[in-house]
Structure formats: C-alpha cells, structure tokens
Amino acid sequence: MDDAAELARAKERGWREISRINEDYAAGRIDQAGWHDAVLALIEPAYLGGDNPRAQSGHSGDAARWRRARALLVDALPVGGGTFLDVGCANGHLMDTLTGWAADAGIAIEPFGIDISAKLAQLARDQHPAWADRIWTANAAAWSPPRRFDIVRTGLDYVPAPRRPDYLAHLLANILAPGGRLVVGVFNEESDQEILEQQVSALGYRIAGRTRAVHPHPALSYKAFWIDSDDASS
Ligand SMILES: C[S@@+](CC[C@H](N)C(=O)[O-])C[C@H]1O[C@@H](n2cnc3c(N)ncnc32)[C@H](O)[C@@H]1O
Description:
Keywords: Methyltransferase, Transferase. The chain has eight helices and seven strands. It is of the alpha/beta class. A seven-stranded mixed sheet has the order 3-2-1-4-5-7-6. A hairpin with a 5-residue loop joins strand 6 (209-214) and strand 7. It binds S-adenosylmethionine. Residues 43, 57-58, 70, 86-90, 94, 114-117, 120, 139-141, 158-159 line the site of S-adenosylmethionine.
C-alpha cells in the first residue's frame, strides 16, 4: 500500500468502497436513497458482527484508544450540559461513555440517539434498556424529531457531500434547541489542515470552538468543532 492509500485508510475505514459509492452518486448512477442504502450495506454487517461495544460503533481499537479517540468531545460540551443527541448512535456506546466522561468533568448530559439502521438502533436499545424510548430509527437528514436537543453531535459523512449544506441547515433549524450547540466530529483529518472546518465556514457558519487529540497515524489528528445556534452565521 502506498503512502496516500495508507493515509486514506487511516482516515476512514472502507475508504475505497465509500469512494466508489460517492463516484456512483456524483455520476447519477444512484440517488440519495441509493447512497444511504449502499453505505448502510457496507457498515451495518461490519458493526453488527463486532465482538465488542467499540467495534459495534465502528471503532477498531481497545477501550483506551476509544477514550483517546472520543473523550475530546467533552471539550465540545457546554459547561451547563443538557440534552445530548448522538446522530448515528450505532449501538449507543458513545452515548454511554461520553455521559460518564462528562460527569467526571462535572458536566451533566442526558443522552439520546438516532440511527438510520433499524438493526443498530435496536442493538442500542437492547444494550441500554433504560434509554430504549430515547433511541430512534431515522435518517437524520429527513427527521422530524419529537423534541429538540441542547447539544446535537453528528458526522458530515452521513449524507453525500453535495447534501451537506442542507443537512447542516436542517440540524440547526429543526433538531437543535434554540441556544443549542451543534458538534461535528470526531473525524480524522490531517493535523496541519482544517479542511472540514473551512468547508463549513465557507457556508457562512461561525465556528464557535474546536478541539483535537493525538491520532495513532503521525500525520492525522482526531478532531471536532462546533457551531452555537445563537451566533451560527458569520
Ligand atoms: C461511525 S458510527 C458512529 C458511532 C458513534 N456515534 C461515534 O461517534 O463513535 C456512524 C453511525 O451513523 C449512522 N448513520 C449514518 N448516516 C446516518 C444518517 N443519515 N442518519 C442517521 N444515522 C446515520 C450509521 O448507521 C452508523 O451507525
């Protein structure tokens, strides 16, 4: 594997398959529903076949690495905490662990989850029965939530790249509570570039804050950034 391929693999598992799905979408061979179906066909069996809670959330490391890769999200939480929606909750492991790390930092969050995969959402309910009525199955890009949330966390790779502007606008207008915070991440990105953040800034959003942590690949960092709805536009 050459250096570029190794970097791409470290940034995103299944990157070759995801690239092919994105090419099919760009060429008009599949529509948005087809894009979601193809991505789900890739990740759902892999997550469901995972033999530990991290693998069932798409992470290949041990518990210590999960913490290094995800605990930076505590930096993104407002000190007052509040309701926290994990968009793409998979088996609910981030809902669970982030709630504990936040509590250790003196921040109380109430976790909620949504996943486009009915099977993964059911796994989350099975593993966290106390939260069963807080975990929904839906495509976040077209979801009318039964309530709003103080903090909404998402990845931007949950929709085809050309749909990201509409997706962000939908999360901010229809899912986030007034005065709430939209958190993007954790994603893997080159340490010396702010590619995703600049794309979101270019849409006219003001980035209210950012955080990062050391990634096992020397060229990459784990990153997250956030937009506060009160001053979302720059
Ligand atoms: C990498 S896992 C994230 C697990 C965990 N939330 C985390 O941050 O580590 C991504 C999850 O997002 C879900 N997902 C992808 N697109 C989605 C969409 N449009 N709406 C809701 N969930 C989506 C996938 O089914 C998958 O379970």
